[in-house]
């Protein structure tokens, strides 16, 4: 073996060891995802570095992760449908399967050119959701890629945008609120038409003359515990995310977002819950 080939092998070996140990995983869409629907409307480009979904009058499209995760910190950069995206929804979420499934949702509701997208979030535990919070963003999400992250560990589910936390759902099992910690989840994303509700509650319809609508994805990163032959493997070392919670500075940013950009919070929707707001809302 030539010495340069030898050093290359050592290099590859070290790189592989590092990946296994840290559980960090820089993305390649071919390796990490399956295109699940849309008959060619979902595309992997640039040697696996980029993925696009598109929607036209006939169909939307979607993909899902090959891996199933049981806790993790998942980051993805998205650039949303530009221009007139009214009526379209780009969903990006973790979900398990079955009638008592758990789910952690980001959904981006499109709008007319120049009008703001809504970032819709929800959390299902054991098949029950109804925990919507909605936000405007502090930037135009169609101009550039921005990072949307889900941190899911045994104590918290934290949604972040460009590293700024926007929502923290805590483990409140001590108050008998179920927390997702048993069912592994896959990552899913799809682009579809929801013009019966998405934009201004369904008032603004999809303008099909602007189709196809396209959303783009890049830089998928998962630091996660991955299910393999029925066991969850987190790797050792580098799992700071597993015990992570919001520090003082992050809490301050969370409050800034909630004060200035939150436009709906189920916890304050007293009309919706005449028998009293959900228990978790009493322990923010
Ligand atoms: C769309 O724009 C209108 C007008 O600014 C706004 O009320 C609405 O919240 C925006 N977003 C969606 C998804 O409807």
Automatic annotation (TrEMBL):
GO biological process: cell wall biogenesis; cell wall organization; xyloglucan metabolic process
Residues spanning the signal sequence: 1-26
Keyword Metal-binding: no
Enzyme class: transferase
Active site positions: 103, 107
PTM characteristics: Contains at least one intrachain disulfide bond essential for its enzymatic activity.
Keywords: Apoplast, Cell wall, Cell wall biogenesis/degradation, Disulfide bond, Glycoprotein, Glycosidase, Glycosyltransferase, Hydrolase, Secreted, Signal, Transferase
Gene Ontology cellular-component annotations: apoplast
Coiled coil: none
EC number(s) reported in the record: 2.4.1.207
Predominant location category: secreted
Matching InterPro entries: Beta-glucanase-like (IPR000757), Beta-glucanase/XTH (IPR044791), Beta_glucanase (IPR008264), ConA-like_dom_sf (IPR013320), GH16_AS (IPR008263), XET_C (IPR010713), XTH (IPR016455)
A GO term, aspect molecular function: xyloglucan:xyloglucosyl transferase activity
Residue ranges occupied by any GH16 domain in the UniProt entry: 23-217
Subcellular localization(s) per the UniProt record: Secreted, Cell wall; Secreted, Extracellular space, Apoplast
UniProt-annotated glycosylation sites, renumbered to this chain: 111
Gene3D superfamilies, sorted: 2.60.120.200
Protein family (similarity comment): Belongs to the glycosyl hydrolase 16 family.
Function: Catalyzes xyloglucan endohydrolysis (XEH) and/or endotransglycosylation (XET). Cleaves and religates xyloglucan polymers, an essential constituent of the primary cell wall, and thereby participates in cell wall construction of growing tissues.
Protein name (record): Xyloglucan endotransglucosylase/hydrolase
Gene this chain is encoded by: AoXET1
């Amino acid at each position: 073996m030539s010495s340069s080939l030898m050093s290359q092998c050592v290099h590859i070996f070290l790189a592989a060891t590092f990946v296994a140990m840290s559980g960090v995983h820089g993305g390649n869409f071919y390796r990490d995802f399956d295109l699940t629907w849309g008959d060619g409307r979902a595309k992997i480009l640039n040697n696996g570095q980029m993925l696009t979904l598109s929607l036209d009058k006939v169909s939307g499209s979607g993909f899902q992760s090959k891996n199933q995760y049981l806790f993790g910190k998942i980051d993805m950069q998205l650039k949303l449908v530009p221009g007139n995206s009214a009526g379209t929804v780009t969903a990006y979420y973790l979900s398990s399967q079955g009638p008592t499934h758990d789910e952690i949702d980001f959904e981006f509701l499109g709008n007319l050119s120049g009008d703001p997208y809504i970032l819709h979030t929800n959390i299902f535990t054991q098949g029950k959701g109804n925990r919507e919070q909605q936000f405007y963003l502090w930037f135009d999400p169609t101009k550039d890629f921005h990072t949307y992250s889900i941190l899911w560990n045994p104590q918290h589910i934290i949604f972040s945008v460009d590293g700024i936390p926007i929502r923290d759902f805590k483990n409140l099992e001590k108050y008998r609120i179920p927390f997702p910690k048993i069912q592994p989840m896959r990552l899913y994303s799809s682009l579809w038409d929801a013009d019966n509700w998405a934009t201004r509650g369904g008032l603004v319809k999809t303008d099909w003359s602007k189709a196809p609508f396209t959303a783009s994805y890049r830089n998928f990163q998962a630091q996660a515990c991955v299910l393999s032959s029925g066991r969850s493997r987190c790797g050792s070392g580098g799992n700071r995310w597993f015990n992570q919670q919001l520090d003082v500075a992050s809490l301050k940013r969370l409050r800034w977002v909630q004060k200035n950009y939150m436009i709906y919070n189920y916890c304050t929707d007293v009309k919706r819950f005449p028998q009293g707001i959900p228990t978790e809302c009493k322990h923010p």
